Amino acid sequence: MNDILLMLPGPTTVHPRVLNAMSKAVVNHRGAKYGEILSETTELMSKVFQTPNKSYLLTGSGTAAMEAGVANTVAPGEKILNVVGGKFGERLMKISQTHGIETKELEVEWGTAVDPKLIAEALDEDEDIKAVTVVHNETSTGVAAPIEEIGKVMKNYDTLYIVDTVSSLAGDEVNVEKFGIDVCFTGSQKCLAAPPGMAAITLSDDAWAAVDKVETNTFYLDLKAARKSGDKAVPETPYTPSVSLTYAMNEALKMVMEEGLDARIARHHKAAKASVAAVKALGLELFADEAVSSATVTAVKMPEGITDADFRGTTRDKYGVELAGGQDHLKGNIFRIGHMGNVSYKELTQTFAAIGMTLKGLGVTDDAGAGVASIAESYL
Ligand SMILES: Cc1ncc(COP(=O)(O)O)c(C=O)c1O
User: Fold this and answer.
1) 3-class secondary-structure state, position 199
2) Ligand 1 contacts CB of residue 327 (under 6 A)
3) Which of 102, 186, 209, 319 registers the highest number of CB atoms within 10 A of its CB?
């Protein structure tokens, strides 16, 4: 058992029930047994996406689904609008460029959320934009985009709405049907709390119509192939799937349903609120605009004069809590607390004890327990 507490924005701690599920015998991936588990798992996935449409599993990390979602729906030479307010918005733009798609960037200051009106303006200015990509939960900055509001805007346009919910699905409100999302995808290792290595994707009828017109330049991630295999009477995947990870996803999704999707999302929001309060109680500053701060990850400015190695090295090596650092230009300037998956006051108490003791050891605060006290108050 790993005695380091993972408070990362993925991978997250995997429950023993899910780990045990992976120890089941590996079966023929072209047989009835696998077909049964696959169809049960994808049906559960659609429930979590909150869509009547089918979902498909991809063996690969979240980035595989990002690439599948873009490269199958927009053809080389067509235009896409990428909302970029952090590392993952940027990645969707780079993926688009890799596939020869003409990109238009809607730049958003890191730490803030996009204003849906700016998306409407961009679409009014250029009728040729075929799709818009939005990252719901920008894990690099700890910001949640207003995907429901953007969805209302998107209903006025004949443009596909592609939403990355890799670090938000099952931790924040994602209602694919209600929000009018055309392409939605997620990863296994975040709020679903399964091990890394699987992704899931769902498409609307409009998105499938686009897929049927686009001659995709991906082979492994060809969604026509995924649909053809996945829609067989005994469902399959086009190529050998990770059978063991399918078991894990199945068990993790059952745990989501047992908890109840709404209850799970409320638990994540509570953890986010408690984390924000504890950060402030320790005298630290949030990186993200608090009005749009994420339900699943809290980004915090690194205290003046403290290095990332000193801070995160101490929380991990001395106190057993693994936090995430900043990415790109935020490296060394922020740290991130992932509170996704199986997280409640117990994990947050340990986390804020580690942060408080580390800060005291580094001479940043006198009150090592202020964060823990705040967590206790939040959960009373
Ligand atoms: C919002 C978001 N999108 C996409 C990804 C990419 O997922 P993966 O690292 O599983 O490829 C991540 C991973 O952190 C993410 O947080």
Assistant:
1) strand
2) no
3) 186
